[in-house]
Design brief:
Two copies of one chain form a homodimer.
Chain A lengths: L4 E4 L15 H14 L3 E3 L7 H10 L8 E7 L11 H8 L4 E7 L2 H8 L3 H16 L4 E7 L1 H7 L1 H13 L4 E6 L6 H14 L5 E5 L6 H10 L4 E4 L13 H12 L6 H4 L2 H11 L17 E2 L2 H7 L19 E2 L7 H10 L9 H16 L7 H11 L8 E11 L7 E10 L2 E8 L3 H14 L9 E10 L3 H4 L5 E9 L4 E8 L2 H25 L1
Pathway (chains A, B): Amino-acid biosynthesis; L-isoleucine biosynthesis; 2-oxobutanoate from pyruvate: step 1/3
Pfam families (chains A, B): HCS_D2, HMGL-like, LeuA_dimer
Enzyme class (chains A, B): transferase
Chain lengths: 531, 531
């Protein structure tokens, strides 16, 4: 089976994304995760460019990797220096990686305008830099920057740039669509031309997504003979991002029968994607192919009914091969099938003609029109289900809360205090707590009131807190009076669960989500005790 | 110039997206917007499938469109009915659109498994339905569902399905990659085969993005002879979405020299994309090609320095052709060029060696590491700039605020009241206000205190309020004690501006953003008065 190497530049090119901001610790964790995934090359940064990158390379020397080869990235030497004098090349060597990747100009416009040097001199920079480095490290890869635009405008010059790198000893020539403007058939034609001109060279592709073709271009390049694909996890990168490895890898493995990270590792793809988006502090894109939460999520009644007969009818691959899963959604487009499926998933067998199903469907559509979205808050849905089944929970009854935020100084955070009054099986508890914000204070006050009766609540930890302003209401009532939806993710030693609240008032919305979360925990504990 | 028609299914296929939930009013507004954009066909829904869609078609009869042709979508008639008896076909005719689009099974598996009928009968359903409708409306389009998978598995049968539709009078045969699993070169080969088998048929492409190739597949299909592309705005749709028309259209117009909506309308693309994401209540995807906020945003120092010489060096098209714009970002990767550019954009000429620039760069990097993101809050940045230039604002001085949320009943929202004490040029104002939530109450109380001195504050309207929990801190302190970033968008009759606040406490973060917003307004009013 033909093997394609995967070269990840999440830590370098990916980090140039507008919304990305990684610390050294973040990068180290990501590097190890990529190593576990079976990535062949990890381009970890540009040591000559800024102190953060340099610090990273100093740190990473203390770490070992099972499989991946770390690479340091940098530019050809400055025109007015020799390689030995060049600070950038020296920084690359000081990084002590076994592989160095050098990028050089292959578009004549860039040499003359961006660098302001003669075309011949640019070729020398490429040869000199690569020759110098080849004598000092195991492997030097050449990134032909702007190759496709360069080839369109001055094909002879672009090929000269490649040849200069090849003859100087570069192990691989990576053709970069740096501006991301190249169409798929143009990539195919260009790669064919390069293969004719340099039949023995090992080629790679580095695509950008400005025309929304980076993945297709990468696949097409491999089909035409490239044996390395460069990209990033989740397609992060400057402007529209790099080729998304989370799409490239499964396309190569599952549809083209090529070996990249291996099918065992492929099952880690979804969890790797999530892990990295979490470290990056970026909301995952639900519609992301292969690994996105919606990638195998079915909403329309007809689709649901068909996939329940044969998943192949509406799924192009088996979700588990990439570590994802099929989901059936509840929505106002839901039919009875969706409710039955969801209830069964939660452990409740309902008959198709059970009046509860109609009741639930009506309740669901009505709440969804107010902004509730049960497809993302399973635990809240389960509580609605219990109430519809005539078995509402009764662990405590709300009486009163009172939250105060008082700010007395210009540069201090407010002092926040909450008091809560709840009736727990006839006993009234009145508690108070401070907090780092109003929701934190309420949560702590409530738990204080309940822990005496339900000690297991102390195991509970709030893991995540998401707020979304439902701008449907913005147009009606103005910015700060919109509907707000709060999602809280909670966990204990058994599981994690998500609950939701919706209100004009962010405190009220958070309170609903906190109450649902506590009720869910108590309900599950009871279930566990009876088993 | 060859013309390619654009067929938009945002209101039908797009609406099957997990996160999408459109009301009838939403759909009407979107339909008019698409008409203004120059879209040729608007597939507005499936009248036979649910009451919401049917209601929409009843409503839309009262509206006229300048340019677009509305289409109603539905399935072939039920096997056990005749066309005249079929409820779905009758609902289609009752919608009274001039165009009807019928989808039929072209993959044998779907006929036998999903529908449970013999293969010959499926072909009859296609012929009968189309023949019946062709006699009653101007135009009938045939969507060959799952065509590419169907062709892979049983090419003769797939072609028979097309022929049945063609002979029955379908104006166009749309080849659908319904599961989204087809690779670009496979699309090319299949379309070529179809063109050989049916040389006089007018073909279209309807791609899904499950392999992240929908746009590339659409472009390739056009290159091989398709003359209609079906897709959605922003790529909305079930699972991974449909082909993104915001990428398809500029690729066809600007890179392939084909006419779609016309270059005048092309300039409306970005605003149309935003308008529709706002109606859909979905956060726009920043990295979206062509129209995304980051599509022409440059962060790295080297890129910024090059594009300031010639934008072509890092931009594949001129942003204004699609109604977008170039942006230079401030970040910890910013160099002096970014600061100078940003300051100049705001009207301040700073010298390269002005010590303010270094001061600002340091301030910026420090604040960004805490979670501030000035790239999205220009007005807050301008206030930081003013302070660095030694001209801080002095419209009012904070002394105290106090916010209370008191909930006394199970199903009621809390009563919220804020008091604010500010010193306005030596005069102390102590005001109180209620609100629909704590931030709304604070905002109202503050403005009450200031409006006596600055009457123009009454022109100000809060337009949007965004909250983001910076989950970097979640791992350290737990869910409800994370850092929160609040962005407020404000507007008056002159402009709109965005301000920001960051804190553990959501009230404090909101307060910072509100204060910046008020200060910015007062500052701009002063500037206008002096001009």
């Amino acid at each position: 089976m033909k093997k394609i190497t995967i070269y990840d530049t999440t830590l370098r090119d990916g980090a140039q994304a507008e919304e990305l901001n990684l610390t050294t610790e973040d990068k180290i964790r990501i590097a190890h995760k990529l190593d576990e995934l079976g990535i062949h090359y990890i381009e970890a940064g540009w040591p000559g460019s800024n102190p953060t990158d340099k610090k990273f390379f100093d740190e990473i020397k203390k770490h070992t990797f099972e499989f991946a080869r770390l690479t340091a990235f940098g530019s050809t030497h400055l025109a007015k220096k020799t390689p030995a004098q060049d600070a950038n090349l020296n920084a690359l060597l000081a990084a002590e990686t076994s592989v160095i990747t050098i990028f050089g100009k292959s578009w004549d416009l860039h040499a003359t305008t961006a660098l302001g040097i003669p075309l011949e001199r640019n070729l020398e920079l490429i040869s000199n830099s690569i020759d110098y480095l080849c004598q000092r490290v195991d492997e030097v890869i050449f990134d032909a920057e702007h190759f496709f635009d360069g080839y369109k405008n001055n094909p002879e010059y672009a090929l000269k740039a490649l040849k200069a790198a090849y003859q100087a000893g570069a192990s691989r020539l990576i053709l970069c669509d740096t501006n991301g403007g190249t169409l798929t058939h143009e990539v195919a034609a260009t790669i064919s031309a390069v293969r004719k001109a340099l039949p023995n060279a090992s080629l790679g592709i580095h695509a950008h997504n400005d025309s929304e073709m980076a993945v297709a271009n990468s696949i097409e390049a491999v089909r035409l003979g490239a044996c390395q694909v460069q990209g990033t996890i989740n397609g992060y990168g400057e402007r529209c991002g790099n080729a998304n490895l989370c799409s490239v890898i499964p396309n190569l493995e599952l549809k083209m029968g090529l070996e990249t990270i291996g099918q065992g590792n492929l099952e880690r793809l979804t969890s790797t994607s999530h892990y990295i988006s979490e470290i990056a502090n970026l909301r995952p894109f639900m519609r992301q192919p292969f690994v996105g939460a919606s990638a195998f999520a079915h909403k329309g009644g007809i689709h649901v009914s068909a996939i329940l007969k044969d998943a192949k009818t509406y799924e192009h691959i088996i979700p588990e091969t990439v570590g994802n899963e099929q989901r059936v959604l509840l929505s106002d487009q839901a039919g009875k099938s969706n409710i039955l499926f969801k209830a069964r998933e939660l452990g409740y067998e309902l008959g198709k003609n059970d009046p509860t199903v109609d009741l639930l469907l009506r309740e669901l559509k009505q709440k969804e029109s107010m902004g509730y979205e049960y497809s993302v808050a399973d635990a809240s849905f389960e509580l609605v289900l219990l109430e519809a089944l005539g078995t509402p929970l009764n662990y405590f009854r709300f009486q009163n809360f009172f939250v105060v935020d008082a700010k007395r100084e210009e540069d201090a955070e407010p002092f926040t205090e909450a008091t809560v009054i709840v009736d727990v099986k006839g006993q009234v508890e009145h508690t108070a707590a401070t907090g780092m914000g109003p929701v934190n204070a309420l949560d702590r006050a409530l738990r204080k009131g309940l822990e005496r009766f339900y000690p297991k609540l102390s195991e509970v930890k709030l893991l995540d807190f998401k707020v979304r302003v439902l701008s449907g209401a913005v147009r009606d009532t103005g910015g700060t009076a919109s509907f707000v939806r709060v999602l809280i993710e909670t966990g204990d030693k058994h599981e994690r669960w998500t609950t939701m609240g919706v209100s004009h008032n962010i405190i009220e919305a958070s309170w609903q989500a906190v109450v649902d979360s506590v009720n869910y925990k108590l309900f599950k504990d009871d279930l566990r005790d009876t088993l």
